[in-house]
Every structure is written in C-alpha cells, then in structure tokens.
Amino acid sequence: MFFRILRQSFARQRGRKALAAAAVIAGMTVATALLTIRLNVGDDLKREVRRVGANILVQPAGDTLPVTLNGVDLRPADQGAFLQEQDLPAIKRTFWTNNITAIAPLLFVPATTTVGDRRVGVELEGTYFAHAMTLPGSGRVIRTGMKQLAPAWSITGAWPADDAQADRYEALVGRHLAARLGLRVGDPLTLGNSGRTLVLRVAGLVTSGGPEDNLVIAPLAGAQQLANEPGAVRQVLVAALTKPEDSFAQMDPRRLSPADLERWQCSPYAVSIAADIASAIPGSVAAPLRPVAQSEGRLLSKLGLLMLIITLVALAASALAISSVMTAAVLERQQ
After folding, report:
1. What is the DSSP letter of 94?
2. Angle CA(212)–CA(216)–CA(222) in degrees, nearest 5?
3. How many CA atoms lie within 13 A of 205 on its CB side?
4. Helix, strand, coil % (nearest 5) of the chain?
5. For residue 295, what are the contacts with CB-CB under 8 A and spacing of at least 6?
6. What does residue 15 show for φ and ψ, rounded to 5 degrees?
C-alpha cells in the first residue's frame, strides 16, 4: 500500500515534483561549490599575498634595539651587527622547510657616484636574485632570491646574474633614481665607498612602488666587496606559507602548557615559523612582518564569512521553494 501511494504520488503533479527536486539540487550544488571554493581559496590567497613580498624578517639580535628620533632610524646603514651568509641554508633545514618558499638576504651600503661634475649619494642594496643555494646534509641545490620573493616587481630590461665575475657585476636601478642619474639599461655605473669602488652594468630598471625605486640593487657579493664585509648579511627576508593568525597564535608560548606549546609549535603560524628560524641561525631574531600577516588573516576571515552567508542564503531559498510546493499540496487536500 505504501509503495503504491508513493508511486502514484510521483506519477501525478510531475511539474510540482520537478520544481521541488530542482530546488534541492540547486541548493546542494551552490552549497557544495561554495564550500569547495572556501577550501581552495586559502591556498590561492596565500600565493597571491606572497607576491607582495616577505612575511618574516630575520635580523641580528644586536640590531633589535631601535635608535630613532621622530620616527627616523638613526643607526648607520653600514654599521651594526651582522648575520653570516654561510648560516642562511639552515633556514631550509627547519621543520617548516616545505612552507618556506623564498629567501633573500640584504646588505645595505651607502655609496656615491659621479653625475657630471658632482658627487651624488646613493644607497646600494646587496641581495640574491636567483642564487643557487646548496642545502647542507642533502646536497640539494635550490634557486632563491628576489626573483621568487618579489615577482610583482616591474623590470625593464633583465634580472642581473648572481654568479657574474667580480669585474662584470650587474645591477637593477630604481626607476626614480635612474631618472635622477640619467641612467638607461646597459649603462655603466661606478659606486664608491671609503676609497673602494664597484663597477656595475645596469641590467634593468625596477619599479616596485616602494623604496626599491630609489635604490641600486646588486648581487650580495658586490655589496660585500664595496662594504669590505665578506660574508656579512644585515637582514634576511623570508616568504613562507602560513596560517592566518588567531587568538591562539598571539599567546605567549612561555606561558602555554606542554600540550598547547606543542600545538603552537606545530601550527604554521608566522610567529612559530619565525621562532624556528631564529633558533636555526646563531645570534638572530626573527619576527613576522605584521602588516602582511594581519592582512592575510583579515582577508581570509571576511572571505570565509561571505561564503558562509551565501551558502546559508542558497539553502534558505531551496527550503522556501520546497516549503511552498508542500504547502500548495496540503492546501489542495484541505477539503
């Protein structure tokens, strides 16, 4: 009897039954699609945020004490503590080796150059562009540097080579600085510092919308040569895939219980990755670059809330459609 009633129910009023089935299918389709997007959008957003630049800064422990006046850093760019370039491969030997996507050391050297009959002060930034780094233990070679860390830079010309000979170093020149100095791609550029000189060829002009527009960016070895600081590194920029910060990430790990501390250390927060990097490099401190990490967290939170609201609205619309069909059927049988 039950199956006969059920069969006759589907055989009659097929349009109404089709409408109810379409409402169910539409609701399930929208909910499934939005939940799938929500699961994948985190990784996609992380990759796009990484295009902005690094999210972790490593620097010598002796340089963490600020010396500022009216918001201006009074520490000379060529003085202070240094990290050692030979210690950088240890960053990729940490627990988070697969999360760390790019590494770029920095060394800032004040210099002068001649424009016509006058001397002009410029700042040289030594770094990696696509440097071949050999990982200790495994012997694996990776390419890392600004080419991976800052793909959003607009380059007119070409990226400089990291492995050029000492007398054939190439450099990027910020577009604003190039305009002031009258430099074009292919021009020679001679920099001086404390009686030492460095001859560069302008391989390209860079536009980043940041301080790089007013810098000369050369291979790290050239900056070390001009500063007479072999193997020295002032800062290290690290790009890592991280989990957006929440209230648990902002807790002091020294006050956590052993179980919570283990969960904190095994979560890919920027702070936990930075702590692991600092323990791997002697005499260093590492900290997240807060604007990048916080922006990522806010974007993901708002996007997740938007997806949830749209999913609930789609399910509510499906429920209303089914309810209207069922109500119409009840009203027809009310007599």
Report:
1. S
2. 130
3. 14
4. 45, 25, 30
5. 49
6. -60, -45
Q: Which two tokens stand for residue 80?
A: 């202070």
CA distances from 279 to 222, 227, 243 (A): 29, 28, 20
Query: What are 189-214's pLDDT values in tens digits?
Result: 999 998 899 999 999 999 988 889 99
Q: For residue 58, what are its two tokens?
A: 């490593």
Q: Provide mean pLDDT across the span 54-63.
A: 84
Q: CA–CA separation, 185 vs 114, rounded Å?
A: 18
For residues 242 and 6, what is the distance between their CA atoms, to the nearest angstrom? Answer: 54
How far, in Å, CA of 222 to CA of 165, rounded?
A: 10
Identity of the amino acid at 187: D
Q: What is the pLDDT of residue 65?
A: 52
The predicted pLDDT at position 63 comes to 63
Enter the tokens of residue 52. Answer: 């902005």
> For the segment 266-294, what is each residue's pLDDT rounded down to a tens digit?
888 888 999 999 999 988 999 888 655 55
Question: Distance between CA 99 and CA 73 in Å, rounded?
Answer: 32
Q: How far is CA 63 from CA 74, 77, 234, 296, in A?
A: 12, 11, 9, 27
Half-sphere exposure of 138 (CA within 13 A, CB side): 11
Quick check: 270 and 139 in contact, CB under 8 A? no
3-state secondary structure 37-66: HHHHHHHHHHHHHHCCCCCEEEEEHHHCCC
- How do beta strands 216-219 and 118-127 pair? parallel
